[in-house]
Design a protein that fits this description.
77% of the residues lie in helices and 0% in strands. The chain is mainly alpha-helical.
C-alpha cells in the first residue's frame, strides 16, 4: 500500500492535530475545576458532553452536506424552516394546553413525535417540489424561506396571546439547552447518528462529485436527483432530531462548517466532514468550560454562539456582495 502524497497528507495532518486538540478539550471539560462530588460532577458533565457530540455531528455534518448540494456556503439547513416549525409546535402546545404541558409530556415518545413531524414536513415539501414540472433546488429554498417566515409570524402572534408565566415556560424551550438534555435520550441519539454517519461516509466520494454540479455529476454516472433527495432526507432527520433534542441552533452549524473549510484546506468530504464534527466539539466543550468556570455563565453558550454566528453570517454575506 503506497504512502499518501504530501498534498494529501496535509489535510490528514491537520485533521490529526484538531482531533488531538478536541481530545484535550474534552478531557479538560470532564476532569478540570470540579467542585464538590467528583462522581456527581462527572455524571452531569458526561451527559452534557453527550449532547454536545450529538449537536456537533448533526449540525456540523448536516450544514456541510447542505452547502455541498446547494453549492452555496452562505445557506444553512434552518432556511428550509425546521427551526420555525419547531418553535410553532412548542407555541401551539402551550397555547392550547397551557405551560405545564411542556414538563408533563417530556420523554422519548415526544422527542420522536416532534422529529417525525418535522421529517414528514420535509418529505412532503421535497416530493412536491422535486416531482413538479418546475421542481428545482432553488424553488425548494424559496418555498422553505416563505414557509419559515409564515411559521415565525404565526408563532409570534400566538406568543403575544400567552400569559407572562406561560411565555416564560415556553421561552426556555426556544433556546438551545445543551446543559438540560435528558440522559435517557442519548443512547437513541447516538444510535441514529451512527447509522446516518455510516450512510454518509459510504457516500463521501459521491458528495465530492455533487460539489461539481448537476451536469458534471450526471456526466460521470451519478444519479443527481436521487443523491440530492437522499442527502436532503438525511439532513432533515439530523436537523429535526437535533432541534427536538437540544433546541434551535440556527448558526452553530454555519460557524463550524465555515471554520472546517478554512482549517482543512481541502474540498474533499472525507476530511471536511470529520473536521466540522471535531471543531463542533471543540467549540461547544471549550466554550462551555470557559463560560462555566471563568465567567460563571454556562447557560449562555448557545446565545453567544448564535450572536457570533449571526455576525459571521453578515460579514460573509457582505463580502460576497462586494464587487
Amino acid at each position: 500500500m503506497s504512502a499518501p502524497s504530501p498534498r494529501a497528507a496535509r489535510p490528514l495532518l491537520r485533521l490529526g492535530i484538531v482531533a488531538l486538540i478536541a481530545a484535550l478539550v474534552v478531557a479538560g471539560f470532564l476532569l478540570l475545576m470540579i467542585r464538590g462530588s467528583f462522581s456527581y460532577s462527572l455524571g452531569v458533565r458526561s451527559t452534557m458532553l453527550g449532547a454536545m457530540i450529538i449537536a456537533a455531528f448533526t449540525q456540523g455534518v448536516g450544514t456541510v452536506i447542505f452547502h455541498t448540494i446547494t453549492q452555496n456556503r452562505i445557506l444553512t439547513p434552518s432556511i428550509i424552516g425546521f427551526d420555525s416549525m419547531y418553535t410553532l409546535m412548542q407555541t401551539l402546545m402551550v397555547f392550547f394546553f397551557g405551560g405545564t404541558v411542556i414538563s408533563n409530556t417530556e420523554g422519548i415518545p415526544k422527542l420522536l413525535a416532534q422529529t417525525l413531524l418535522m421529517v414528514i414536513f420535509a418529505t412532503l415539501l421535497y416530493r412536491w417540489l422535486f416531482s413538479g414540472k418546475f421542481g428545482s433546488l432553488y424553488l425548494l429554498l424559496l418555498v422553505g424561506v416563505v414557509i419559515g417566515m409564515a411559521f415565525s409570524s404565526l408563532s409570534v402572534f400566538l406568543q403575544r396571546l400567552l400569559s407572562p408565566t406561560e411565555f416564560d415556560l415556553l421561552s426556555v424551550k426556544l433556546f438551545g439547552r445543551i446543559s438540560a438534555v435528558n440522559p435517557e435520550y442519548l443512547p437513541l441519539a447516538f444510535g441514529i447518528c451512527a447509522l446516518i454517519g455510516l450512510v454518509i461516509w459510504r457516500r463521501r466520494h459521491r458528495l465530492d462529485v455533487l460539489l461539481l454540479g448537476r451536469d458534471a455529476a450526471t456526466a460521470v454516472g451519478v444519479n443527481h436527483r436521487r443523491e440530492l433527495t437522499i442527502m436532503l432526507m438525511l439532513i432533515a432527520v439530523m436537523v429535526s432530531f437535533s432541534t427536538a433534542l437540544v433546541g434551535p441552533m440556527t448558526f452553530f452549524g454555519f460557524i463550524v462548517a465555515t471554520l472546517a473549510y478554512q482549517v482543512t484546506g481541502s474540498h474533499r468530504h472525507q476530511y471536511v466532514l470529520p473536521m466540522a464534527f471535531l471543531l463542533g466539539i471543540i467549540t461547544l466543550a471549550g466554550g462551555q468550560f470557559i463560560l462555566q468556570n471563568i465567567f460563571y455563565a454556562g447557560g449562555f453558550l448557545t446565545v453567544i454562539i448564535e450572536f457570533v454566528g449571526g455576525i459571521l453570517f453578515l460579514v460573509l454575506l457582505l463580502r460576497k456582495g462586494t464587487p
